[in-house]
Write a structure and sequence with these properties.
about 600 residues; alpha/beta; 4-stranded antiparallel sheet; 20 helices; 22 strands; about 20% strand
């Protein structure tokens, strides 16, 4: 009897990048691997969307539309290029107005995409209706999604097979146009038995010719088991990746899945030798990139705090950027309570980021002392209806702290009435900045805000972590802030490999390369305007590590207590730094795009 061919999409160049490198990868570096994968017979690729849209502007100083054009040219005219969309959020963390949602579908079709996978983290089907129609109207294939995860032990009320069956029924009853259905488990926590039961129910419900696709990660160590369960239950397609962006926080490797299917009634129908050759090319392409150790690990605690692979490394990269990686275990532990009390939105972007941000705030500021904007708004209904009602105490606290009421209005209704959202305000911002106005630029600003403007003005900085940079950081930190005061040889581990470092005063030498470590770990600051002679000054310090986004005042300005002085960003959260006393701005100690440390003086007030 002939074996059943299991279709697969290669996720290495979108989800793989997001799940290992925080989506921070240069196009020039990976296109040779796309070419090798194409030559190995792969013609279905995940080619963008999700975090790979914003990250190119935020960290790579590249244009996502240009990347998609180049991907299409490399993969060939017949390849199915698929991207990921977050329903009414499309490719951002905040929900969008209807004109931005439509522009997303139209522009992605213009730039070579053929299929869009479209999900809502809350499984609120109302958030899929308009976005799905826009995808279909743009002439693209629409893969509609049911989002999956496992609830922490002791929780119930959603995320079982019956819940997923009900969600799929709502999608069908809503008349959303679709070409295929995907069950997406971004955290990789659904049990194999639940996957099997869910796919079985869907197979009975859907027309026989409907393609059912299943997506998971290896983060909890059960990705291969879940893929096998889905296949046996009737799934037609799965997502697989290639080393070095496979396993761990990523999808199961193509070679691993090929091995799992040996001796069964199923096959990937690939030339495995060509796949192995393509993976060798991919490894060589990524040899200079820092491979975070947590990206290669299986974490048995993930089901208790379901952090998706694509969010896990993005967040650990940001923690490293801000010198806070030592707090990661605390934050992950704190996330369990955040999930339990938040209404059981699926831990996938943007909700996974809301969970992590709130856990981060609970660790840094104390439990529920500061609500993350996204998490608080989710509790109050601003992203749609959560699967179950969130904790009543948290709803009350969030409403009081944020000054917002609970809403029953849809996100699109709210956003279309918001004068700060949409293509119009983005176009006006481009005009004010004297930047070229075209459809792509307007969309970039609408979805990336200030960072989009920074990119378009040519002021964006590259935030990619290369091995050599990590080596330099390790060496610079050898002295614990007192580097450059002694000599000797120190052993240090970088990316799982041991090195011997020779330290001679302010100079450290590794593998023949010398680094000046005499500056210690003090952060450089921009020169400010001198304070008035004889005037007492009051420093306004950074409440946490982060990136300066925008200055709201100038030296010499009179400010009132509570007035915003500047906006900084940490962990994808924007935070207003305000004056705690009235005074005159004596000096500004930082500039936009500066990375600052907790407690670092930002502004000096003459009081």
């Amino acid at each position: 009897m002939a074996k059943k061919k299991v279709k697969f999409m290669c996720t290495a160049f979108r989800d793989g990048f997001q799940s290992v490198y925080g989506a921070r990868v240069k196009t020039d570096d990976f296109l040779p691997a796309v070419e090798a994968a194409r030559d190995a017979g792969i013609n279905w690729f995940e080619a963008g969307g999700g975090a790979r849209f914003q990250a190119l502007y935020f960290y790579s100083n590249e244009d996502a539309f240009d990347m998609m054009d180049r991907f299409r040219a490399t993969a060939g005219p017949d390849a199915d290029l698929q991207t990921l969309s977050r329903g009414v959020n499309v490719v951002g963390l905040e929900s969008q107005s209807s004109d931005v949602i439509k522009a997303h579908a139209d522009l992605f079709a213009k730039h070579g995409i053929t299929t869009i996978r479209n999900f809502d983290a809350l499984n609120d089907v109302n958030n899929l209706i308009y976005s799905g129609q826009c995808i279909a109207d743009a002439g693209l294939k629409h893969q509609v999604v049911v989002s999956m995860m496992e609830l922490p032990p002791g929780c119930s009320g959603a995320h079982d097979a019956a819940f997923y069956e009900k969600t799929l029924r709502q999608i069908l009853d809503a008349g959303i146009p679709y070409d295929s259905v995907c069950f997406k488990d971004a955290s990789g926590t659904s049990t194999p038995s639940k996957v099997y039961e869910t796919i079985k129910l869907a197979r009975k419900m859907l027309p026989a010719d409907t393609m059912i696709h299943f997506h998971t990660h290896e983060t909890a160590g059960i990705g291969g088991l879940c893929y096998m369960s889905a296949i046996e239950a009737g799934a037609d397609a799965i997502d697989l990746s290639m080393a070095p962006a496979s396993g761990g926080t990523c999808q199961t490797d193509i070679v691993t899945m090929w091995h799992i299917l040996r001796g069964t009634d199923y096959t990937l129908d690939v030339d495995i030798d060509k796949i192995i050759t393509a993976e060798d090319v991919f490894r060589d392409c990524m040899k200079d990139y820092f491979l975070p150790p947590e990206a290669t690990m299986v974490d048995p605690m993930i089901p208790f705090s379901p952090m998706p692979g694509g969010a896990l490394t993005a967040n650990t990269q940001m923690l490293r950027d801000n010198g806070l990686m030592d707090r990661y275990p605390e934050i992950i532990r704190a996330m369990s309570e955040v999930v339990r009390r938040g209404g059981f939105g699926t831990s996938v972007t943007p909700v996974s980021q809301f969970y992590f941000q709130q856990a981060f705030n609970n660790v840094m500021f104390g439990p529920w002392e500061k609500f993350a904007d996204g998490y608080g708004k989710m509790l109050l209904g601003y992203f749609g209806k959560t699967p179950v009602e969130p904790d009543a105490e948290l709803i009350k606290l969030a409403s009081e702290q944020m000054g917002l009421e609970v809403t029953k209005k849809s996100p699109i209704e709210l956003n279309d009435a918001d004068p700060t959202k949409g293509l119009g305000p983005a176009r006006k911002r481009l005009e004010e900045e004297g930047l070229p106005i075209n459809d792509e630029n307007v969309f970039i600003v609408a979805t990336c805000k200030d960072k989009g403007i920074t990119y378009l003005k040519g002021d964006a900085k590259v935030g990619i972590r290369y091995k050599k940079d990590v080596e330099a950081e390790q060496i610079a930190n050898l002295g614990g802030g007192n580097a450059g005061t002694g000599s000797g040889t120190v052993n240090v581990s970088v990316n799982g490999q041991s090195y011997s470092v020779a330290v001679d005063g302010a100079i450290a030498t590794l593998n023949g390369k010398s680094f000046n470590i005499g500056a210690g770990d003090g952060a450089p600051v921009a020169a400010g305007v001198a304070a008035p002679v004889g005037g007492a000054t009051e420093p306004i310090a950074a409440p946490m590590p982060g990136l300066i986004i925008r200055l709201a005042v100038q030296p010499g300005a009179a400010v009132q207590e509570g007035q915003t002085l500047l906006i900084m960003e940490a962990m994808k959260m924007e935070m207003e730094v305000k004056a705690h006393v009235a005074g005159t701005v004596a000096s500004i100690e930082v500039a936009a795009s500066d990375q600052v440390k907790q407690g670092q003086p930002l502004v000096l007030l003459s009081v």
